[in-house]
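Ex. 9. Protein: Glycosyltransferase.
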Amino acid sequence: MHMAHQTATVQNFTPRVLIFPFPAQGHVNCMLQLAELLGLAGIHVTFLNTDHVHRRLLQHADIQARFAAYPGFLLRTISDGLPEDDPRSGNEMRHVLRSMLETTKPVLKGMLSTCGDILGSDSSPYITCIIADGIFGSLANELGNELNIPVIHFRTISACCFWIYFSVPDIIKAEELPIRGKEDMDRRIKSVAGMETFLRCRDLPSFCQVSDEMDPQLHLVARETRQSSRAQSLILNTYEDLEGPIVSHIRTHCPKTYTIGPLHAHLKVRLAKNVSTSTYTPSSNSIFEVDRSCMAWLDSQPFKSVIYVSFGSITVMKRDTLMEFWHGLVNSNKRFLWVVRPDMVAGEVGNDEIPAELVAATRERGYLTGWVPQEEVLAHGAVGGFLTHSGWNSTLESIVAEVPMICWPYFADQPIISRYVGEVWKLGMDMKGVCDRKIVEKMVNDLMVERREESARSTAEMARLARNSVNEGGSSYCNLDKLIEDIRLTRKRKSAP
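Predicted structure tokens for Glycosyltransferase:
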């Protein structure tokens, strides 16, 4: 009788996972995709956003309606410690991270300590597992240890970037940092295992491109990344056929590393298998107002004729840089769809400052907008190339859609991703550190005309491997099943703190 009762208790147990992303579009987007995948598996999720991100999601996304299909899903909020009018873009994101590392832990600990009231539901009142953005590595690990809750880290960056961050102490020990000046940028970095033959100073993540080896941001990023070896496991939004060699190096320090990406493609597959969600539309996880009218414009364009241009949710550029891109796009004589966020350009750009020939050419073969449904745009038959900041979500979406890339990285993980796209994966061209209208014009024409067939072959093969990984029996599909099983094995902690 005792054994039968125990078995029934285990079978009736529903784990509740707290998912806590860094408050930026790319981080929130893929962690919401993970939340939906867990919801499809019957796991209850409490998704914790900052107040600022939560308000923007409610304003611009269908998050509440979409997640209503998952009975155990809860949305909760926490302060990022900053005033509402803080810009929270560009390099200011470092400011957000510092604020949260300083102010969030005691608040979150208080919420977890009374989670039956705040973070749970009647059917699953306690958080049994924390999936934290790995950028909060130390904060999450400390909370998990203090409250006896298993912690899993989710890094929203590429495996290659994670590995460089993890290798920072080795790079410093090899005296390959600091960088002494511009003349140093093409110097090889040979102390990162697996990248000895192609990694240059200019390809390092921006936080690693420092002139002072004691730079506090460098050590913060390295310290938080190393914390992942102390977590129960690590989740990466990648797949073995894309980054397997680097993931093998990561597993020497983080043995339980789950590669479950590309998440947006994985979610599409799992939703299609689910009877109640048989019709798939890409998730709206945007914290920006989406302009869908661009889809009608794309419908009217010839096959593979449009270069799509977007520098993501954080990039900020000077007016002069904007104008060089604009001239280059117009001079290429190609059709272009360009996302120009209202907060993307430092300072105002009045209509009277834009040369008449740019206005006329854009009216003829261009389309400018503030934000688009990117996954749908990249999948559209009219799109033949992507001029991108090399954010990780954008890169994965481009790969799955078989769209070759021109990479103009801005910061963080983007410089190393652009190097991999151009040098290792052969999926496009790396334009980092350059913004000249003639180079923009040449690269657009190279991508869309000169190298079109070559690019089509390489992108098609990598997309095929991506699709295989997330289909039943593929590496990412199996890894997600293993992750779900691990989460199911978690139990309510033995005693409340």
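Check your answer against this statement. Confidence is low (pLDDT under 50) at residues 1-10, 492-497.
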